[in-house]
Amino acid sequence: MTTHTEPSRALLHELTVQAGLSATGARPIRLAENALWRLPEGIVVRIARPGQEHAAAREITVTRWLTTVGFPAVRPLAIDQPVHAAGRTATFWHELPPHHHGTTSDLAPLLRRLHDLPVPPDVAQVLGHTDPFVRLTERINAAPHLDQTARGFLLERATDLRAQWDTLDLSTDTRTVHGDAWPGNTAAVSDGDVFLLDFERTALGPPQWDLTSTAVAADTFGTLSPAEYRRFADVYGSDVRAWAHYPLLRGIRELRLVTFAFQVAAQSPGALHEARHRLACMRGERGPRPWNWTAVG
């Protein structure tokens, strides 16, 4: 019987051969949109979902640059990569020591340091500019659990938010933005060091976009206490909620979280209740924030 693991293992074999490595003894870490495998030599292989060749190349460029400036990030293997085979793309990384997710207080100094780094022109050219609407319309149109009315509402909301985003003057404060800045993308090891992970969405943009995820954890999810949020803002050095355009960024982030929940619900019916709850909140049917959203996926 063919298992879910076997096709990914066959693909892994092709990709490692292209990289001059061996997949013998490889063990799966997580097989989802991005498949993660651990090789015995202390190497982690990340197989990107189809169509993510440019994002994978950007991750390698960014992390090579961060390595040269001593920033605590995952380190790519010193090989010619990304690697391509069978229509898919893989990147190869040095495995971190045993670790666990960091906290918002761990995340704050990493973001402060990342945002303060001067960006070399060659890296800036590869990074491009932040697009917080990437894949948003595709998610809405592909969600099987949305009826015509709900789909139309979300598409209209996306159009309205993009129109507001396009009016912003972001030229006065453009930094390196991680793009998916939350504690799950940090790794805290036993000696106290904390590393930043997953640079798939890294680009040039407003640093406030990175800070909005943590503010939404407090404002929308209600999972971060006022004291925890205050520590995050104090360590970073500013509170994004005081920014005039924060409501816009929060609205974009919330829309992404609604569409993500419907995407997950397509494969995991248990997420459908949460997806519908999030949609009802966005429609104004659940009262004021916090809306007590729970994690999906």
What does the overall shape look like?
globular
Which blocks of ≥5 consecutive residues have pLDDT under 50? none
Backbone CA Rg: 20 Å
The CATH topology of the largest domain turns out to be Aminoglycoside 3'-phosphotransferase, Chain: A, domain 2
Question: Helicity, in percent?
Answer: 40-55%
Beta-strand fraction estimate: 5-15%
N-to-C terminal Cα separation, in Å? 27 Å
Highest-level CATH class of the largest domain: Alpha Beta
- The fourth-level CATH homologous superfamily of the largest domain is Aminoglycoside phosphotransferase (APH), C-terminal lobe
Number of helices, counting only DSSP H or I runs of 4 residues or more = 10
Helix and strand element order:
HEEEHEEEHHHHEEEEHHHH
Describe the structure.
The protein is of the alpha+beta class and 297 residues long. It has 2 domains: 91 residues, Phosphorylase Kinase, domain 1 (2-Layer Sandwich), CATH 3.30.200; 179 residues, Alpha-Beta Complex (Aminoglycoside 3'-phosphotransferase, Chain: A, domain 2), CATH 3.90.1200.10. It has 10 helices and 10 strands. Strands 1-2-3-5-4 form a 5-stranded antiparallel sheet. Strands 6-8-9 form a 3-stranded antiparallel sheet, with helices on one face. Strands 7-10 form a two-stranded antiparallel sheet. α3 runs parallel beside α8, α6 packs antiparallel against α9 and α9 runs antiparallel to α10. 35% of the residues are buried.
